[in-house]
Design goal:
six-stranded antiparallel β-barrel; single chain; PH-domain like; WD40_repeat_dom_sf; about 750 residues; BEACH_dom; WD repeat; Neurobeachin, Chain: A, domain 1
Length: about 750
């Protein structure tokens, strides 16, 4: 099935200019003849549009107003020269139409949206059609519609207009010249109605621009400019802003092949329900990102009384497109304003103080691409691109992604178009949630958190086994994939390997006389990596039972390490996080690793903890002064710096969908921050520091200073369970991917194995 749209546009005319229950019939190219037959005669080029209750002339020159003549105010309608006094001017077949009327409206003069101007009194307008042979047909239609408009009863008017309309539709057929391929055949032709806000227009998809077609689809998809959470979505059209077209068959997230590969890796490793993009192509934040210059109060409301960081504002169209193409979490499309006539959303006409960028320049008007001479020129060229033949031929591919069959299921997977389930209609059936509190909680989750992951929810923890294996506080825990071997680090400077099956200590290794701070296993479980307060990172071969390598990478204690896809991420008290490329040895334990420094993320103070999102495109760091920093690893740039704790940030983690960051601190707070906006959207308090935590996307289990494990209900913003475990602070915690097993380490030198009860 193809919905075919003609190439001619309605131009400045919107169907909203029509009266309620008024239909658009047809249009013809024409000249408006002023002072016909006199020495002052002149012609205004444009289009004459016939509607069920009016005749509308749209001049090509936008400084000229649109003319709307109500048919019920017409006194005489006919060929020019047949209306009395003008008869002597016509000596041959006339190609002109004469309308004598008592009232006319002037609309959008100089293309400015403003109240209509009305002129009253008897007057005559003459319109010269490009095709003289159509004059009789147009005049006959106008006379029929005039008779209908003069009927007293509205029902009679509607019935007569409907009869006229059906008669016209019966005489028209699909233009086969609009086929895209000569082998195409017409299988079916049927009547249709185009529905737009306040207007319904019958026809065969007649004289409809791509712009109005997209507005129509957004409308029937329940998207409205009155609802920021369901604002109409429009596509990016120009690919690299040097005037080449974007591939409309792919969602924004799939346009960059390298970024897509990383997203697909995270998708394949993710538990059900899987998704590729944790953020949506449209959201209130994205809409107001574009519209902040004309809707500042809405942005202040959404942002808790502040504007966003100046460098993250809508400063440049080219920069915004680049971020959508390369950024780790930005997959947004455009809004209708990019293809309209009003440039005010690009211009700081309100003289808002939107802050200073890093280069100290004030945020003011949006910078347009080099090929546009002004905001007006940018919109005009964008409209030209939207209405181009290329877009007309390929727009249905984008529509399939956003409105059609590629939204869900295997087709969405094949098109790399899998968004989070809660962003899709039917993702959650609220009608089946009977408990009103639960329903409110789910609505809050959809609006604020965006996701409750379908992992098991942590509800009750039962102490299973405990072993004292260190001489000082335990600082790190990692477990082999089969769960049989548990590796721990401690402030006693040792790495220990404990057998879960034999319940015995298998080995103890010391690299220096200083504390070890964290540990991890490389893929394959053949090498353990540990970080140390002596500024180094150590590699230990499990297979060969010996120290394999040392990375001397920092100027102060290394506090936390992560590994993903042959990259090592190390945080240090020297105020840096460093990213290293690590080429693993061909034979574990026999060759040294080779490391290159890829990036250095600089902080103002010492970094105590870091965490990566599942795709390793984002990194969050926590400092000793209570600041949470969110970094885009694809560009090694700082996205947000959020001072949300008083005192040390003890632990951080991304939600499984990468939309939110959870952080705990010495201040006892458990905070949830939105990754895209940097907004603190939830903060919960406990009466003591929370040193570490794990979470399943909904519930959080944190280790407290007193040795208790607290289970938090994020939606209910409360502590749901308290379980006593260690004598002294819980210092580290590990949970398997299935969320079925938890191990904790404490200041009491013990490791405790927990069972989860559901």
């Amino acid at each position: 099935v193809r919905f075919t749209k003609p190439q001619r546009s309605l131009g400045r005319i919107s169907l909203l200019l029509l009266n309620l229950e008024e239909y658009y019939f047809d249009q013809d190219r024409a000249n408006h003849i002023l002072h016909k037959g006199s020495h002052h005669e002149r012609k205004i080029r444009g289009s004459l549009k016939i509607c069920s209750k009016s005749a509308i002339f749209e001049p090509d020159v936008i400084s000229q107003p649109i003319i709307k003549i109500p048919l019920r105010d017409c006194i005489k309608t006919g060929k020019h020269g047949e209306n009395g006094a003008n008869r002597h001017f016509t000596k041959e077949k006339s190609g002109s139409i004469s309308l004598i009327f008592s009232q006319v409206y002037f609309i959008k003069e100089h293309n400015v949206v403003a109240p209509y101007k009305i002129e009253r009194g008897k007057m005559e307008y003459v319109f010269e059609l490009d095709v003289p042979g159509k004059v009789e047909d147009v005049v006959e239609t106008l006379l029929q519609l005039h008779r209908a408009s003069c009927l007293d009863n509205l029902g009679d008017q509607t019935a007569m207009v409907t009869a006229i309309l059906q008669s016209r539709l019966a005489r028209t057929s699909f233009d086969k010249n609009r086929f895209q391929n000569i082998s195409e055949k017409l299988h079916m032709e049927c009547k249709a109605e185009m529905v737009t806000p306040l207007v319904t227009n019958p026809g065969h998809r007649g004289h409809l621009s791509n712009y109005q077609y997209l507005l129509h689809l957004n409308t029937v998809a329940d998207r409205s400019c009155n609802d920021l959470s369901q604002y109409p979505g429009f596509p990016w059209i120009i690919h690299d802003y040097s005037r080449t077209f974007r591939d409309l068959s792919k969602p924004v997230g799939a346009l960059n092949k390298k970024r897509l590969e990383g997203l697909l890796t995270g998708y394949q490793e993710m538990p059900e329900p899987k998704f590729m993009y944790g953020s949506h192509y449209s959201s209130p934040g994205y809409v107001l990102f574009y519209l902040v210059r004309i809707a500042p109060e809405y942005m202040l409301c959404l942002q808790n009384g502040r504007f966003d960081n100046a460098d993250r504002m809508f400063n440049s169209i080219t920069e915004t497109w680049k971020n959508c193409l390369d950024g780790a979490t930005d997959f947004k499309e455009l809004i209708p304003e990019f293809y309209g006539d009003d440039v005010s959303f690009l211009v700081n006409s309100l003289k808002l103080d939107l802050g200073k960028r890093q280069g100290r320049q004030m945020v003011d008007d949006v910078e347009v691409p080099p090929w546009a001479s002004s905001p007006e020129d940018f919109l005009q060229k964008s409209k030209d691109a939207l209405e181009s033949n290329y877009v007309s031929e390929h727009l249905q591919e984008w529509i399939d992604l956003i409105f059609g069959y590629k939204q869900k299921g295997s087709c969405a997977v094949g098109a790399h178009n899998v968004f989070h389930p809660l962003t899709c209609e039917g993702g959650v059936d609220l009608n089946n949630i009977q408990d009103p509190d639960e329903k409110v909680a789910m609505l809050t989750q959809i609006l604020e958190f965006g996701k409750t992951l379908a992992w098991n929810n942590i509800t009750k923890l039962q102490l299973h086994e405990h072993y004292k294996i260190h001489k000082e506080a335990v600082t790190g825990i990692t477990v082999s994939r089969n769960g049989s071997s548990v590796f721990t680090t401690s402030q006693d400077s040792t790495l220990k390997m404990f057998s879960k099956e034999s319940k015995m200590l298998q080995s103890s290794i010391s690299f220096s006389n200083m504390a070890l701070s964290s540990c991890l296993l490389l893929p394959g479980d053949a090498t353990v990596v540990t970080s140390s307060w002596d500024n180094n990172v150590y590699f230990y071969s499990v297979a060969f039972g010996r120290h394999q390598d040392t990375l001397m990478g920092h100027d102060d204690a290394v506090s936390k390490i992560y590994w993903h896809d042959n990259r090592l991420y190390s945080a240090s008290w020297d105020s840096t996080v460093k990213v290293w490329s690590g080429v693993p040895a061909e034979m574990p334990g026999t060759k040294r690793h080779h490391f290159d420094l890829l990036a250095e993320l600089e902080h103002d103070v010492s970094v105590d903890t870091i965490s990566l999102n599942p795709a390793s495109t984002l990194l969050v760091s926590g400092t000793k002064e209570g600041t949470v920093n969110i970094w885009d690893l694809t560009t090694a740039t700082l996205m947000h710096q959020i001072p949300c704790h008083s005192g040390i940030v003890c632990d951080t983690a991304f939600s499984p969908d990468s939309r939110h960051v959870l952080s705990t601190g010495a201040d006892g707070c458990l905070n949830v921050t939105d990754v895209q906006t940097g907004m603190l959207i939830s903060s919960m308090m406990s009466d003591e520091p929370q040193r570490c935590f794990v979470w399943d996307g909904n519930s959080v289990s944190s280790g407290s200073q007193s040795g208790e494990l607290l289970t938090w209900d994020l939606l209910g913003a409360k502590i749901s369970e308290r379980t006593q475990g260690h004598t002294g602070a819980v210092t580290c915690i590990w949970m398997n991917e299935q969320c079925s097993s938890i191990i904790t380490g404490g200041e009491d030198r013990q490791i405790i194995f927990w069972k989860l009860q559901y």
